[in-house]
Write a structure and sequence with these properties.
The protein is mainly α and about 475 residues long. The protein has two domains: about 375 residues, MFS general substrate transporter like domains (Growth Hormone, Chain: A), CATH 1.20.1250; about 55 residues. The protein has 20 helices and no strands. Helix 4 packs antiparallel against helix 5 and helix 7 runs antiparallel to helix 13. It is globular, with a radius of gyration of 22 Å. It starts with a helix and ends with a helix. About 55% of the residues are buried.
Length: about 475
Amino acid sequence: MDDGANDGETTGAGAASARAQRLVLLIAILASFVSFLDGTVVTVALPAIQRDLGGGLATQQWVVDAYLITLGSLILVAGSLSDVFGRIVVLRVGLIGFGITSIAAAAAIDPMFLIVARGLQGIAGALLVPSSLALITSTFRGPAQSRAIGTWTGATTAAMLVGPVLGGAFVDLVSWRLVFLINVLPIGATLWLLAILHQRDKRRAGATVDWLGAMLCTVGLGGAVFALIEQERLGWSSPAIWGTMVIGILCIAGFLVRQRFAREPMMPLGLFRIRNFSAGNLATAFVYGALSLNGLVLAVYLQQGAGLPATLAGLASLPSTVIMILFSSRVGTWAGKLGPRMFMTLGPLTMAVGMLLLLTVREDFDYWLQVLPSVIVYGIGLTITVAPLTAAILGSIEPERSGIASAVNNAVARIAGLVTVALLGMMVGGVLDLQGFWRVAIVTAAMFALGGVISFAGIRNPRAVADVSPSM
């Protein structure tokens, strides 16, 4: 009788644990989906925003980069905030803030209002991704963690790809303003799931927030990005350009010095002594920088250069979305068994091939022959890359530091996108014509290829995987 009762209790506990894991995974996906979706859904609406509110290529760059500046710099603070106040609390605050700032962006009356609202959105978005991913890494262990990360990356990266589809439909059928309100439903659903999770929040005793480091990082990135975007209009000889660039560089240097000596650094430099963490983040910089640049340029060129409506421009990336949804979890499982190195090498190289296929685009535009092959090859490479990349980086760090490790990796990804978007004007000469489109395709191909080479040279499979791989 007692044994039966114990077995029943064990079974009940196991079922409760499985339910909690499913809830955590769903919460992490939805919360990150909000941030990733907003980062890409806007790109397809940029031509419509420009027609309505005014501004040229620089305004389009700022609508993207205002979000990325605050997201990329404050995502590091979010990792510390999660340790101080708890991941669930930070997640809840981020969701509410994101909803409010999304409504503000939808109500924008001029470019400056929209750019400010986008910057505030980035602050709220910075609270979402590290906390949600840290929930996964603290809840799942072993192969289950690799599968969960694979599912998370598939769903959240699919948000990056499906965003232009939804955005294009709203732009053509209703208004670009509704693009910023897409997140209302997932925000509400995530807040409800957090309420029924009933999981005790985790805080780290003695944790503090490095506010000085946050200020240095934000001012440094803002100054450098301002110079890179506005130099096309003002020229490098303008004090407003070289002055802000100098301030930006000095603040970034100050940030690194601060991280070296701060008691509770936002970005512990010691993490970079771990081989897979440093190599994985370097690969992340090239891969995600290319992802952001390609996403913006393809969405804008298909409308302004090829003459497609916003809906069709958004649908152009749909095959990649389907591939990600179907295979990301499976790739995450394979990477957990075989190790991430092979996937992180072949994936970016495959994406590089996909980018080179865009060189077939001509004035007499044909999506089926000139763009679709690139999108399919690119989607395959992206699916092979993303889950193993995330697992390799977070798997190299002990679970109790997963929050800050996740924040650093996400900051690297967003800052890389921030810089490449800021450099767009220099690449295309201020006008995104066919020649500029080709130049961007070559640059992104080179960046993807470098990401693959770095992964091959720097990533090492975990010892347990390396021991069993030869016999498989």
